[in-house]
Design goal:
The complex is a heterotrimer of chains A (501), B (146) and C (263). Chain B is mostly helical and 146 residues long. Chain B has 5 helices and no strands. Chain B has one domain. The chains are: A mainly alpha (501), B mainly alpha (146), C mainly alpha (263).
Chain lengths: 501, 146, 263
């Protein structure tokens, strides 16, 4: 076997082959250890892949030796290499973190199923990112989504509302995926191909209502999956009642991958020759992105449940990504890609901090956070630093995202958007500051349901969490990895899309 | 001795259904059929058995544990074929590597037969598992369980 | 010109897709019962399956199941399948000969090309091109000789073609109604091509795609029903209104629910 030649398929094959094995392992520690090692192997494969793409440019892999456009092609350029690196990296951090949290929150009889589902979910997310075939996107999207529904429902041991949340997620997610399939079908009708690049070649110069309808279906379908503002209603429930480790993993990966798919379809498949796109940018993505930034962030301020607050904040942050995309410029796309990466780092760390509190306090209500600094200092400071990153304080990744976004909005002539970005960051100050005030200045409850023992989270949780927190600072100081790769990726995408570059 | 007719009919039909499933399975690489259909037909035989003789009897024939192992084996058959072709020097699921000297792509035949077997085993066991879990579900579970 | 009814009836499969899709979506949104929601979801997905099957349809094509070599000789119109040839020529003659004068050649070419692009997966490119060419010759002959003696086609296509070409040159501009019947001509030509190239399959790819989507849909249904069962166990109901009310009690306490009920 030529390992280098097979590298592009490994991120999908490794978790796919190992997921069923995890199901056979006895409940307890074994499936966790197994899944953790698998996640590290996958991360190594993705890191090598990113390196290879940086050196050699676009890598194409013919699945089953069938030549594209007939066969399924795995096509890795900088944009999806970056997202692959991110998703597998988050998995490599969350999987080791999960052990204690899962031990508490999941029925012991279900642990091997849990890690199996987690690996399948990872397979699906990586597959969506890596593939260059439009229908293959749907298949992997559903593989990851079905695993996600099961994972969310496993939170039912602590709170039965996880079941209804998972059910709502299933209905919305299936409708979204079905809309996406209709869109792909319409595009297939217009082009006779499913390969994304080939589709783009055949769509250039065509304009018909079939393609317009296909575009609309795809945007709505993926919009549901990525929780675009008015279609976000499944997200808060799912993230709130899912097991804490699952919330951390999903918040950092699932919606990001969906945003990537949106970018891929808009820039690679449709491209700027597509007349409808300008109107969609001006009348759909820009206003909905802005609305999400404000309305969802405002809703977040009034939440009494930390996980729900962070979930609404996620909807708001997705607004930033859509805003960057809607500018239709290299700078805007760079900002979107950078924010995909950075938001995953901060939301991952924040949800992990909440998982630590749930482990000790048994609750993710705001009340459990009162006086947390005196009880769990390491967890508290992890929350504060990643919270500052969420606001966009300098020296953190959040600042880098906002900086790129501001630059892009001024460069694109949307100066008002720049002010709105700053204004919505102030709302983030409100909802993060409220929790920080609680943690630092209040006295902890001595007794009652929210009393916490003065004992920080175990090391197996603190180390991965602080790893992500430090990544928040590291990538805030060294932007050449994220910003550099993202801008090169954005240029390549825009070049393909035929936009100004 | 209720439902005597149904039980006798099931006994008569059981074997032909399985034979038909195997026919669809083996026919699947060059004709209509294949693992999905064969797996479902195969599972139908056992579901029919459970309808007429009760789930407990069927569980004695194929216990749930065996089905879970069969699911894993099915998926591993599929993925393992892909990995095997990778080890032989081709791409994932590059069936030609199984019989590289063949002038008429015999490897494609071998490969699809192997993969269809995996699909068949996985689908049949999954269908039966779903049936077992839905029908055999205890209506009342521990308060502590959720 | 197509009348309004033709517009509706000719696209009946698309109307079925749209109606089913709307029924499904309405059921998902309007029904409070979780199982009914899943039923609605399945109806919605069924509409997509029908849509994909519609995409895969090739005029005159049979199910994409390989029929085998015994019917297929490939290279030319030898003696083995004169019947098929006659049938094809007759069909083409009925629809085409009277209406299509010199315009036919182009349209047949187009039909062949679009057909080719649709089914390049399962039929060799060359076979089809050859078939299209033969068809051109055949139609030329029909136009040339009055168009009803299909047997003569079979006998001497080459000679007929020469005559046809000369006549085509002379024919000048095609008649207006010839243009209007272009679509019919193309269909007829496609059907003739179908008979001509022995076996014409519908496009198998959408069928494969829809098989995958069906499997995904079944998996989604299974997960959804499993969740409904668990919800039934945990809440004692699968009616959404009651579930929401119970969740509100859990979130805000009984008092909030009571005021909510009064309001």
């Amino acid at each position: 076997m030529n390992l280098a030649a097979q590298l592009p398929v490994l991120p999908v094959v490794i978790p796919l082959v190992t997921a069923p094995i995890a199901m056979l392992l006895p409940n307890g520690r074994a499936p966790w250890a197994f899944a953790t090692i698998v996640s590290w192997l996958t991360f190594a494969a993705c890191a090598f892949l990113l390196q290879a793409v940086l050196g050699a440019g676009v890598i194409s892999y013919e699945l089953g030796d069938w030549r594209p456009p007939l066969g399924i092609e795995y096509r890795i350029d900088l944009a999806n290499a970056l997202v692959l690196f991110l998703v597998s990296g988050i998995a490599a951090v969350v999987f080791p973190f999960a052990y204690r949290s899962v031990q508490l929150e999941i029925d012991a009889r279900q642990t091997s199923f849990f890690y199996c589902a987690l690996l399948i979910c990872l397979t699906g997310l990586l597959g969506v990112t890596i593939t260059g075939d439009a229908f293959n996107v749907f298949v992997f999207l559903e593989i990851s989504s079905l695993a996600t529904y099961a994972l969310v429902a496993m939170g039912a041991r602590r709170d039965r509302r996880a079941l209804t949340a998972a059910f709502n997620y299933l209905i919305m997610g299936t409708i979204g995926a079905s809309f996406f399939v209709i869109g792909v079908g319409l595009l297939y009708q217009a082009t006779g191909t499913l390969n994304m690049v080939d589709m783009h070649d055949k769509l250039v110069g065509q304009s018909s209502r079939v393609i317009d309808a296909g575009f609309a279906f795809i945007v709505v379908g993926i919009g549901l999956k990525l929780a675009m503002f008015p279609m976000h209603l499944w997200l808060p429930g799912a993230y709130t009642y899912a097991p804490s480790a699952v919330s951390a993993f999903l918040a950092a990966t699932a919606t990001k991958v969906a945003v990537y798919v949106m970018i891929r379809f808009i820039d690679t498949v449709f491209g700027f020759q597509f007349e409808f796109l300008g109107a969609a940018f001006t009348w759909v993505f820009l206003p909905l992105g802005l609305a999400g930034m404000f309305i969802a962030s405002l809703v977040a301020v009034f939440q009494d449940d930390i996980k729900r607050m962070l979930a609404y904040s996620s909807v708001g942050q997705i607004g930033y990504m859509l805003l960057g995309l809607s500018f239709g410029t290299v700078e805007g796309l760079t900002a979107s890609l950078v924010h995909i990466f950075n938001h995953a780092l901060m939301k991952g760390a924040l949800f992990m901090a909440v998982a630590c509190v749930v482990l000790r306090a048994g609750s993710h209500s705001v009340k459990a956070f009162a006086g947390l600094a005196k009880r769990m200092p390491f967890t508290t400071w992890a929350f504060i630093i990643s919270g500052m990153s969420l606001i966009g304080v300098p020296l953190t990744v959040g600042f880098i995202s906002k900086w790129y976004l501001l630059q892009a909005s001024f460069a694109a002539g949307h100066w008002y958007a720049g002010f709105l970005i700053v204004a919505s960051s102030l709302i983030a100050v409100l909802y993060v500051g409220r929790i920080v005030e609680l943690m630092l200045l209040r006295e902890p409850a001595e007794d009652g349901p929210y009393a916490i023992p003065a004992k920080d989270a175990p090391l197996s949780m603190l180390i991965p969490m602080w790893f992500l927190v430090l990544a928040n600072i590291y990538f805030g100081l060294h932007t050449e990895l994220t910003g550099g790769i993202a801008s090169r990726a954005a240029e390549a995408l825009m070049f393909m899309a035929g936009g100004a570059s | 001795m209720q439902h005597l007719i149904l039980k006798v009919t099931t006994k008569i039909l059981f074997a032909p259904i399985i034979v038909f499933a195997l026919y669809v399975q083996f026919h699947g690489d060059y004709g209509p059929g294949g693992g999905f259909q064969a797996g479902v037909i195969f599972a139908v035989a056992f579901i029919l058995h459970a309808f007429c003789f009760g789930l407990e009897q069927t569980r004695k024939v194929i216990p749930l544990k065996a089905l879970i192992i069969a699911m894993v084996v099915g998926v591993m058959f599929y993925a393992g074929t892909g990995v095997a072709t990778m080890l032989l020097g081709g791409n994932f699921l590059g069936y030609d590597q199984i019989a590289p000297e063949s002038t008429h792509h015999a490897g494609q035949h071998y490969g699809i037969i192997l993969v269809e077997w995996g699909v068949g085993v996985a689908v049949a066991s999954t269908m039966m598992t779903i049936f077992y879990l839905f029908t055999g579900r205890e209506p009342d579970i521990d308060q502590e369980d959720w | 010109m197509e009348s309004w009814t033709e517009f509706v009836i000719a696209r009946y499969n698309y109307w079925i897709v749209i109606i089913l899709m709307m029924i499904g979506l309405y059921t998902v949104f309007a029904r409070g019962n979780l199982v009914k929601k899943i039923v609605g979801l399945n109806i919605f997905q069924t509409s997509i399956f029908i849509f994909y099957i519609t995409i895969g349809k090739v005029a005159g094509g049979t199910a994409p199941i390989y029929i085998g070599d015994e019917l297929y000789h490939g290279d030319d119109h030898g003696g083995g399948h004169g019947d098929d040839y006659d049938k094809g020529a007759d069909k083409a003659a009925d629809k085409v000969a009277d209406n299509v004068a010199s315009g036919a050649e182009d349209h047949v070419g187009e039909a062949g090309a679009s057909l080719h692009s649709k089914i390049e997966n399962d039929l060799g490119v060359n076979d089809l091109k050859a078939a299209a060419n033969e068809l051109k010759l055949g139609e030329g002959a029909i136009a040339g000789e009055g168009g009803h003696d299909a047997a003569s086609l079979h006998a001497a296509p080459d000679g007929a073609a020469k005559i046809a070409n000369e006549q085509l040159m002379d024919a000048g501009k095609p008649a207006k109604d010839a243009i209007e019947l272009t679509v019919d001509a193309a269909h007829a030509a496609a059907e003739a091509t179908a008979y001509h190239s022995e076996v014409l399959y519908t496009n198998p790819l959408p069928h494969v795609l829809i098989l995958t989507a069906i499997v995904v849909g079944v998996a989604g249904t299974a997960v959804g029903l499993a969740l409904a069962v668990r919800i039934r166990e945990a809440y004692g109901t699968i009616e959404e209104d009651e579930l929401v009310a119970m969740d509100n009690v859990a979130e805000f306490g009984d008092a909030a629910n009571a005021t909510g009920a009064r309001a």
